[in-house]
Amino acid sequence: MTSAAVMASAAVTLSMVIAPVAIADPAVHADPAAAGEFAITSEVPTLAELDAQIRLLVASPAPDDVKAAQLEGGVRAVVVPKMIYRVGFFRPPKGSSVVTGPETHEPDRHTAVINASRQGAPTVQVVAEWRRIDGRWKLASKSLCNGIKTIGLPIPCNFE
Predict the structure, then answer these.
(1) Cα 25 vs. chain centroid, distance in angstroms?
(2) Stretch 127-146: mean pLDDT, rounded?
(3) What are the structural domains, with CATH classification, of the chain?
(4) How far apart are CA 41 and CA 34, in angstroms?
(5) Helix (H) or strand (E) holding 50
(6) What is the pLDDT of residues 145-155, one digit of tens each?
(7) What is the pTM for the complete model shown?
(8) Edge-to-edge strands, sheet with 109-118
């Protein structure tokens, strides 16, 4: 391999390593692993807020208590996002996720679609529900159960 080819190959590899990763809304959630500061408290959650929450759950190494605060099932349900994070299904560099519409909204219930993809597999779409509990929007346990079934994870759905 010529030195020009080696340099070109190195440049491509470096650009892949340092390429920016899109975040739903940096102002909403610049550091997903920040100590328990993340909470969706708006009357109607935005797609950017829901997307940031899902990224916090499945694409960040946030501590268990931070993840538990985002889940209707609390600490009992943390096993699901922890496993998805460890396997790396839906986080860079080989996967991604984004929350999109259509959305529905009621005072204490909101739905949207989680689109999750990983290299070499079709995009998985899960209609997800969030519940407003003590003024915070949390991912509903039934949505975690739907995700477990859709992905085929060996986790019992016993945190509802």
Answers:
(1) 13
(2) 95
(3) 44-160 (3.10.450)
(4) 17
(5) helix 47-58
(6) 988 888 888 88
(7) 0.75
(8) 95-106, 109-118, 124-133, 136-139
